[in-house]
Amino acid sequence: MKISAKDIERWAETREAQGELPRLIRRLAVQAGTVTEIAFPAGESVSRPGWDGQILSNEGDPWVPPGRSAWEVSVERTVTTKANRDYRDRTQATDRETRQQSTYVAVTARKWTTKDKWLSKKRAQGDWKDVRAYDSDDLEAWLEASPAIALAVAEEIGLAGFGVESLGRHWESWAAQCEPAISPSAFFADRQEAKDRLLTGLRKRIAGGPNGAYAIRADSAAEAAAFVCAALLEAEDLCSLAAVVTNEVGWQFVERNPRLRVAVAVRPEIAQRPAANVLTIVPIAAGDLASGYGGRDGEKFQLELSRPSIYAFREALIEIGVEESDARRLALATGRSWSVYRRRRATNQAIRRPEWLRLPEADALATLCLLGAWHGEKAADRGIVEQLTGEPYETVERKLRKLSHVDDAPVISIGKAWRAKAPLELLDLFADRITAAELDRFFGIVEALLVEPDPVLELEADKRWMAGVYGKVREESGLLFRSVLDALVKLAVRGRDYEGLATLDVDARVERLVDRLLQDADATRWLSLASHLSPLAEAAPGTFLNAVEASLRRPDTPVLILFDESVSADSPLSGGAWYYADLLWALESLAWLPSWMPRVAKLLARMSHVELPDNWCNRPFNSLLGIFRSWMPQTAATLDQRIAVLDRLIAGEPEIAFQLLDSLLHQGHDMASPASTPDWREDDAGTASRPNGAEIQGTLIAAADRMIGMATGSADRIARLLDKFTRLDATRADQVMDSVAAFTGRDAGDFDRELIRNALREKLHWHLSYGKNHPQTSLRPEDVARWRQLYEALAPRDPVIRHRWLFQDGQVDLPEERLEDFEQEDQRREEWRLSALQEIHRDLGLEGVLRLADLSGDASIVGRCLLHVVPERAALADWIADLETDFGWGTSRASLVRGILGFLPEAETAAFLHRVIQLGRAQGWPAERFAACLRLARDERLTWSLAEQCGKEAESAYWRIVTPWLWRADAADRDFAATKLLEAARPISALNTLIHHLGDADPSLLLEALESALVHGETDAKFPESWRLEKLVERLEAWDAMDQEHLLQIEFRLVPAFRLEATSALKALTKAITTKPELFTELVCLIWRPESSESRSDSPPSEGERIAAENAWRLLHDCRRQPGSLGNGDIDPDACVRFVDEALALCRAKDRAIMGEQTLGQILAHSPIGEDKIWPGPPARDILDRPELSEMRKGFEIGTFNKRGVTVRSMCEGGKQERELAAQFRRYANGVGATHPHLAESLERIARNYEFHATREDDDAALNRERY
Questions:
Q1: What is the pLDDT averaged over residues 273-284?
Q2: DSSP states along 986-1054
Q3: Could you tell me if 63 and 211 lie in one domain?
């Protein structure tokens, strides 16, 4: 495309030229690559005062001077006059020093006949470092040297040629064909890495020689070409070197302009005969092969342009102007494909009809339209496809395979799974082609799928996470299940939009199907459909709500089984299912529609009565709260509608309603997650914007007024309301105080007064201690005075109830400002307690103290304080002896006595306890009561001596129940206690007594306690944690007197106490396994039966044999120590080979040759890497290469896979980890191939296996991207 000087002069006559000429100069100047600074306002900015342009260039070129240059640009007809005026004004306004360092450049788009004369005169004046002048002829030459810019300019002035386009024109023509138009930043969402790789790859190719092809694959060839154009437009160093070729003729333009380095073909067939002097970009549709167009270069430099994630695509749609609440639905409807989006939102109707619709194989898309997706690996899925189509599966798949290879393919093949890329588009295109018979078959398939009980329910709840192991899974794939339900929703929501489906009454058929499924559903049906309730609710909202309401009205409330099963399995911890989660999400999605919201709120309130663990956030009440939350209501209902529903809840579910109001008036920061939204219904449309301040305030006022009204006359509710006091205005605050004051009357009960008084006390303490740092939420001075007055007035008449809060726990808050010194604060708190207890003792005697102990939270505090209130120890001892109690652990009276006995001064303890024991003897206490009483005393020699003095029966009873706390005791006391616990048949308690101080414990006593614990166990005693047992084993292993064979037996019995892969802590046993071939063989024999049928027994193993086999398997599976290992970490090759040979011989003799080999192979899989950085190193390398040891190599491969353990990856990461491992093992295989061919073959098998798993992970990631 050539632009002549005459073309430029004609353009100068246009209105646009004044603003666009500076832009043209700027683009021409930048493309040389030598400019480091440039300021060239264009367009509307040309009217700014100052220079038309300024440039700093390191080297310069034929048109841009080196150094700093100042430019004046004009399109005026009086060229010389304008040039003289600009020159004079700029020279006068610029200081001489700057002028001597700058070149003055005058540019006109006109023919300047006196240019040379003017230039000579100005240079002669010497005002500037240099002076240059350019007219239309110079601009023609400059453009000729910049063909990419010339092409863009030609398009702008109406001179575009045939077969080529500029990057900008092509991008605009592609991106602007839809509404809203696609912006570059939205187009690059989740593709920035691909864009960077593309530009980096192009720069490398251009620098190394431009010939060849660069293939880029996307959903469609047009999208691939558009992506390249958009990327190049943002790369200043490349955009001036590139053009778009729209047909074969365009290559002539490319060949005539050698400065072009990149040519973007708009379709792959255009790139079949490219120009030889450029790098050709070949756009490939996702179904094509790059090598078909780009040859080897196309394969080597191919770039895969994946579709964005659903989240990135949604954000991109919002960015270009799609309503936030509609963006996710549109992302789903278009399959996250910009090609599909452009077609579905096209302003040109001709673009809306895809080319593949004309293919004869397109009839198979009707099947995909209904089923949505399936997995070809599943025979049940294939059978359903055949049932729906009436054709062999192979025929359907052949058609889909053809369709998956067309440009902008409507189907996606991921491994053996088939999926519609944009399901809603297929429904739009094929809805009127679906016959009544096809629809009948589809509904029959769906109902058959959904009525079938889930096989996992045949298992116990704690085993359901292993359903795959037990074979209790559905025959159909989860992919098919989800897809047919999604299709059901689309038919229900959109069916009336299509004449063909509307005549078949499809939406009513969906409702009838959901009704048959759920109306009289039993617990098994609800559990079987637990993961599919959201689509059923969206498909038939009214029918779904009717079914849930009906289920709750039944005596057995079968729908609540979803909650019961979740709690019983403790699902989040055991790998089970949160069965009720999808029910909540279903209700949340229905609540968006104002007409459904009242019923949803009532159901959620009803379900909020179900008790769930406190740490579960996914609960009905939180879903209910989300609907009404003032700053983010999860419904399209108006404020008035929400308030009306609140009033209905207050009338029907007052307790839940008050809890809701309490939560709505949240104090402090709040946090919320968005509720579930419909996939295809538009019930949440227009809800993306947050409520304004007036609406938020309206919600809070309504909640406050109703909370105040409900609290009147209720002490419990008033106490909760007081926490919201600082959120209320003065009028409402006075109403609350009036409600509080009503309880100061004589007819108010003590417990009610206490409840409100405690709330006042906690609020007063917080305000006095921290209020000055939080002025916005602190009490006003006048409120503080009234609160203090009410606090005193509300004091219960009964002193026990009045003071029991002081004994609730050790750190109660006083109605005073907190002291900074913690010891002083504790001392003040203790003074308040003593004063209160003295009052109770004075007025009510010890009977009052007993009531206080019964009603307090921690009776031991009462006992401790009682020592100061009743100084007569004899009287106190007599009182304890006379108590009507059996001193049962955990009772309030036992805690009271424990407080007394535990805090008695040591000098008084002996006499005090002797007196209690003497009185007990006098009263004829049974041995159990002596033991229970002494259990409450301190764990020390004195107590133990008294237990002995009470007689053997009492002493035995004492040691049967006591759990001594001996952290500060000496070794002798711990040994004594442990011995007594062993005599009482409590070996685990004895072991726990010793295990915390292993350094000074008697090893023989440790061994006795451990053996007894392993043999006899102990009810209600916790066996020590494995890390403590590890230290215990180390202590025994270091004991010189320890018999090694005995030690091995002990460690073998300890195996179950260690978690998987932690038995290496049993060092003596682990070492013996790899040094004693006979022990290794014995363990193999414990696990596996003889390999020949003649010597094999079919009788089931005994319980002891089963436990021994499990222990042996754990040990061999965990064994990482290599045969021949030395203390310094090295391996003795001769010892290693000798052990392996002897172990193999013994295993053959025991008829376990195969499993012996495999087990040794698994151990050798943990061998270290060689000094040559090749794994495995010698001697394992040499052993594994023996030709006859094929089973050992099999075990080696198994061990290699197993030792990898658990992997962690994101859902969409794919098989990157496995490919890295495959490359690593292939490098090892190549490293030993020449010297150890059998081992190399084994390593190659490992590499191929990892490649296989990488492909599976890629497929899973691709399916996850489609799903999420």
A1: 86
A2: -HHHHHHHHHTTGGGS-HHHHHHHHHHHHHH--TT-PPPPHHHHHHHHHHHHT-TT--HHHHHHHHHHH
A3: no
